[in-house]
Amino acid sequence: MLELEPMLSKERQTKQNQWRNVKEIFLVATKLGLTSFGGPVAHLGYFHNEYVRKRKWLDDQAYADLVALCQFLPGPASSQAGIGIGVIRGGIWGGVAAWIGFTLPSVLLLACFASFLSAANSLDAGWIHGLKIVAVAIVVQAVLSMGQKLAPDRIRATIAMLTAAVCLMWPTAAVQVLVILLAGAFGCLAWKQSDHSPDSELRVPISRTSGLLCLLLFFALLVLLPILSHIGGPSWISLSDHFYRAGSLVFGGGHVVLPLLDSELVRAGYLSKEQFLAGYGAAQAVPGPLFTFAGYLGAMIGGWSGALFATIAMFLPAFLLVIGTLPFWHTLRKNPRIQGALRAINAAVVGILLAALYHPIWTSSIQSSADFALAGFLFCLLVFWKTPPWIVVIIGALGGWMLPL
Length: 405
What we know:
There is one protein chain. The chain has 405 residues and is mainly α. The chain has one domain. Helices cover 79% and strands 0% of the residues. It is built from 16 helices and no strands. Helix 5 packs across helix 15, helix 8 packs across helix 9 and helix 9 runs antiparallel to helix 10. The N and C termini lie far apart (84 Å).
C-alpha cells in the first residue's frame, strides 16, 4: 500500500497537468480566434508568434513540419495547424480545445448574422449586394495569389486552365473530385524526383494504431453518410453529409470550398445564391478560419442546430486527417511521388477556384459597370493598399448601399 500511494499520487499529478495544459490551450486558441484576421497565411503567422516564439510549445523546425503536413492534407490549413499544435501539447483533448477556441468566435458571429438576415428578410438590400461584390474582389485576389505560388510554370498553369475549363463545362462536385484525382495521378508520373529529404521528425503523442483508426473513421464516414442520407435518415444526417464531403475534398484553403458548397447546397435548393454569397462576403469580416462559413450556411438552413451540425461536419474531416497522418508524416514527406501528386493537385485547385470566380461569383454579382468599378476599387484596396479584409467588407457594404443612390 505504501508503495502504491506515490504511484497514484504521481498519476493524479500527471492528469492534473494534462488538464491544465488543455485549459491553457483553449484560452490561447480563443484569444487567437478573436483576433486572427487576414486569412490562413496570416493565421499561420499569428500561430508562429504565439505558439513558437512566445510560448515555445514547439520549435521552428517542428512548426515547419506541421505546416507542411497541413498544406498536404485537404481541409483548412490554419485550423489543422492549430489542431496539430493542440495535439502535440495536450493530446487529443488538446486538439479539441484548440479547435473549439479558434473556431467558436467566428461561428457564433456568422450564425448571428444568418439569424439577422432570416428575421429581417433583407436580401434585396443594397448592402447585401455590396457583400457579394466583396466576394468577387476577395476571390480574384485569392486566384492571383494561389496561381503565383501553386501554378508558376507552364505545366502547372496548363493543369489549372484545363481544370477550370472542365469544371465550367460540367459544374458538379463529382467532376471536381475526379479532376483532383486525375491531377494527382498525373503528378505522380510527371515529377519523380524529390526536392529534398527532410532529416527532422515531428514527435507527437499519438500512436500509429490511433492514427490508423482515425483514418479508417474518416473514410467510413465519407462512404456511410451518403448511404444513410439516401435511404432516408434524419435531416441532420443529410445536412452533415453535404458539409462532411465538402470538408473532406477541399484542397488549397478556405476559398476553394466555394464551388463544392455551391454544388452541394445552392444547386440542391437548400438556400439561394444571394444568401450564399452574402454570407461568404460577411465571412471575410470576422476573425478565424473561413471554413466557419459553414456555421452561417447551417444556420440559414436549419437554425442554431443546423449551424452546430454543419460546423462539426465541416471540420471533422480535418480533425481526423491531422490525427491520422501525424504519426506517418515523416515517412510520407520523403516520397517523391507524393510530392509530385501534391504539386499537380495544388495546380488543379487553382483551376477549380478560377472556375468558381466566373460562376457563380462573377455572374451573379457583377451586373453593371458600377458593380465592376466597385469590385475593382475593393481589389485595389486589398492588393495594393494592403487594407485589412474586415475594413474592405465594411467599405463594400457601404458601396453597395450607395450604388442605387
